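FORM 7B: Structural annotation worksheet

SECTION A. Query
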Amino acid sequence: MHKTITVILTVLLGLSQQLRAEDWMARLPDDALVATLSIPGAHDACTGCGWADGMEGLGDLFARTQDIDLAAEWRIGIRAFDLRPCVYEEHMNINHGIMPTRMHFEDALALLRDSLAAHPSEFVVIHLLHEADGDQVQGAYNSRLLELLRRDDLKDLFVDFKTNLTVGEMRGRILLLSRDSYATSPVGGFFLNWTGEANWDRQRQGRIRGRSTNGRLYMQDYADTHGTGGLDTKVSAIRQLLDFSTTHVVTSTSTITWVFNFASAYSLTQNLFGNEVSLSDGYRDNAAHTHAAILDYLATHDPGPTGVVMMDYVGVDESAGYDVRGQELVDAIIQNNFGYITTAGVESVDHSTLNIEHSSLGIEPSYDLLGRRTGNVQFSLFNIQYSTIKTRKRQP
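SECTION B. Predicted structure
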């Protein structure tokens, strides 16, 4: 009997944790800036969905970065998805390089659409990259992509990028951000000036271009960590961006900064027909190092926004003998939000007020990590009231 009760309690606890993960954004205030959140993401998110017929062995050896599929990633709380479509056998397929997964791009979008309908408190950020190496029909990507994004059952899902997007504006919807300019005007936004350098610097930051606005972007996407010092370089780059994102204070709309910090990379390669190619175990080995470094950072620093963190092997703590800690890191990033964001005493704030020039008032405004004025101060001149947003430091 005791054993039966223990099993039942374990199952119920697991279900409770899953339910909290599926709706974790419900705990966020509507007026929180999306740019100041901590969002767990899955790099090459669909490699856990299996491979096209005949590609299973090669895919598992060279291109797997996830052990669970897209639906399972959603259930554990992943809200940013790295999707890389191409034109393959007359449909839009999601690939990792030349390796085709079993997931069609339209099916991935439909799955996310249905998940959002079932959990309307949530939203999704998609990092989109044309996997041109997988194209079997040349020159068709742009038109096929636009046709799909404008389909009647999908077109209302997508929100236009603006730098001061709030959680309330995003709930139930998808922000699609593409590394490729597939049209004159984006559905969502375009990444500009993307770099994979480890020594990125803030003077050469990227941008995100929406239909009518541009926003600041810092990214870290150093991907090749094999060789002497590669992993140390990667970890240093991750920490450098965390140093910025977790301490950055928004003082105006122009200082809102979107952050994409990639934990993913590959540290092991194999010579194939004279070329060094990545190995799935290289993604695992890299994840074991970078995930541990991020977990250590979150445990030893005051809570603050991480931005979007793209990871390999989310949802599993062990993969093929590697201690990847992918479930532990997802949970830590989600929980990190609630170390510096609280809904207590929060009033709705119009973020357009962040454009107000305060210098004429002869004061130095102070803002919290959500970009809101701290202190219960009222400016009758503008008829704006700012509420205190308390920040909680991690308990030792």
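SECTION C. Observations
DSSP finds nine helices and 16 strands in the chain. The chain has a mean pLDDT of 85.

SECTION D. Sign-off
Analyst initials: ____
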